[in-house]
Design goal:
This protein is mainly alpha-helical and 439 residues long. The chain has helices at 2-8, 23-51, 77-91, 97-121, 131-151, 168-178, 185-195, 227-256, 262-281, 284-290, 299-319, 328-345, 352-355, 357-380, 392-397, 414-434, and strands spanning 157-158, 201-202, 206-208, 216-218, 400-401, 408-409. The radius of gyration is 23 Å and the shape is globular.
Length: 439
């Protein structure tokens, strides 16, 4: 709203008014605002939750310090939701298609998680919303997003981006304007005059593929058909991929949410990297330098993700060990949904197994454990386990027998496990950024 207010008053000479046209400034302001809301308003929300006795019901799984968490306020994802939405409404361009999509994503998945938490807390049903119900909602949203990406004229990729250095005046214009919206007529003329060369704004099913020189992969290569039917087939494949990514990300963050600060800290790292990618993809200069797809308008995603990172950091103040509040499914499903949608919009979804390696391994551990248990139960009459407990973070938290040396294995303190997972997340984030040049 502040962004649009200053745009409306651009004919008046207001000191500092020009700052609002710069993505970098708005991203910083959105991040700081979201952080302050999480810190200040979050404290009041926690007190309200405590008064209403909206606490977590803990099942005794034999983990150290587990039962001490009983009664800790949950549904803290409301704090993240408020911080993000307020700061984005203040500083983002609300006419930008990507901002609208991410706001809808936040509302959708926060609502889904809130429904699950409500059933658990107020109806005292530990199972919450059924797995089929969650999955159906995630798939429905994925289909909606896929159709939007397919048919919206505002979601395009610009191919054959600049081949010559820009003059300082052009560079300033690109920083202030092109990363938040498609280039205006004046800038287009200056590009076409020879200072820059940009062609072919197209609807595309291309995405980023790591490790190779021309690191673009087109989903149409998976289509066995050509012509008109091949066109429909490639978009169908792309929509299915979108559904898969959103479902996997949302459930992956949900499974990781099992220790104080684990999901919050790890997600902050992922969100920050995706915000950087969005800014780079939406800036024609940086896109050319890094040889990545230039996607007009995605700079606004950088503002949104900056706000999201600020909200998560503020929430981590309350959620770090020992946690004063848990995010619940209201927060974890929302975080995963936003991460998945952002990666899709900036065409970086194939980087997620590396960037979101912690979430990926956590999910994989659950799949392996369940599959192996069912297989051995059918074959031997008794189920066997690969891990002491899943998701993976609980494996390190639970005492047991080392399968190699056959001696008792001590459980690691929760805080140590969380910090080590953060370190792994940072390493994976650095590796993901490095993949922009390692090809």
């Amino acid at each position: 709203m502040l962004y649009h207010l200053f745009e409306a008053l651009k004919d008046f000479d207001i000191p500092g008014q020009g700052l609002m046209s710069y993505l970098s400034f708005r991203a910083m302001m959105a991040s700081v605002t979201a952080m302050l809301i999480s810190l200040i308003v979050g404290k009041k929300i926690i007190r309200w939750l405590q008064k209403r006795q909206i606490g977590e019901e803990i099942r005794d799984l034999g983990l150290e310090g587990q039962m001490q968490k009983k009664g800790t306020p949950t549904m803290g994802g409301i704090i993240i939701f408020l911080a993000v939405t307020v700061s984005v409404l203040l500083f983002a361009d609300l006419t930008n298609i990507y901002t609208v999509i991410l706001l809808v994503t936040t509302v959708w998945f926060a609502g889904l998680g809130f429904t699950d938490d409500y059933i658990k807390v107020f109806r005292h049903n530990k199972e919450g919303l059924s797995e089929r119900g969650k999955l159906a909602s995630q798939i429905l949203f994925g289909l909606g997003l896929g159709l939007t990406v397919c048919f919206s004229p505002d979601i395009v990729v610009r191919e054959n981006v600049p081949v010559a250095p820009a003059a300082p005046a052009v560079a300033n214009t690109l920083e202030a304007k092109s990363v938040s919206q498609p280039l205006d007529t004046d800038t287009e003329l200056r590009i076409n005059s020879g200072e820059w060369k940009a062609e072919d704004v197209v609807k595309s099913t291309k995405t980023t593929l790591p490790f190779i020189k021309n690191h673009e992969f087109d989903y149409k290569w998976l289509s066995p058909f050509k012509g008109t039917f091949g066109w429909y087939c490639k978009w169908a494949i792309y929509v299915l991929m979108i559904v898969l990514v959103i479902t996997a990300c949302s459930n992956g963050t949900n499974l990781t949410d099992g220790m104080d600060g684990l999901t919050t800290g790890t997600s902050t790292i992922v969100v920050a990297v995706l915000g950087i990618f969005a800014y780079l993809s939406g800036n024609i200069i940086n896109a050319e330098y890094l040889n990545i797809m230039y996607i007009p308008g995605t700079g606004e995603i950088g503002v949104f993700m900056a706000a999201f990172a600020g909200a998560l950091i503020g929430f981590l103040w309350h959620n770090s060990y020992p946690a004063q509040v848990f995010m619940g499914d209201t927060g974890s499903l929302m975080i995963g949904g936003v991460i998945g949608v952002c990666a899709i919009l900036i065409r970086k979804e194939l980087l997620l197994p590396v960037l979101c390696g912690v979430f990926f391994v956590e999910t994989l551990s659950v799949i392996i454990q369940r599959t192996y248990f069912k297989y051995t139960k059918r074959r031997y009459g008794a189920g066997r386990r690969v891990f002491k407990m899943t998701p993976l973070h609980h494996h390190f938290q639970k005492e047991g027998i080392d399968a190699v040396i056959m001696k008792p294995e001590r459980a690691l303190p929760e805080a140590k496990i969380v910090v080590r997972f953060w370190i792994v997340g940072i390493i994976l984030a650095v590796l993901t950024v490095a993949l922009l040049k390692v090809r």
